Amino acid sequence: MGKSTYWKAKNTRLSLSDSKFAEELLNYLLNWLHLPLQKRGDLFIFARELAKHSNSIFSFEKLFGRQYDSSIILQYVEKNSKKLDDYQIAFLNSSKNEEIIQFFSQVQVFEGDTEL
Description:
Elements lengths: L4 E10 L4 H16 L7 E9 L9 H4 L6 H11 L5 H9 L2 H10 L1 E4 L2 E2 L1
Parallel strand pairs: 1-2, 2-3
Antiparallel strand pairs: 3-4
């Protein structure tokens, strides 16, 4: 069996401050981390619109794709991991930062039909 590929489509305005989206994203991350290296695939996220928050350090561009910022990724994960259960938090804390950053850098995000 090859790599896993996940697709997430949202016909809505997607926001990084949405706690439900953050929890879903971290669950994808946890599932990906549990997989053997050779089976780790990609996540594609499609949204009608991506919310832009001028007063937040978090942006889709800094979390995903070519222009990601490692420190922003780790801050986002830390901030939102509080929503996870104790086992998930412990597993995430025992994971290597490089693997977490790799996951986020490989996620492909599309606004409408345009990739970030």
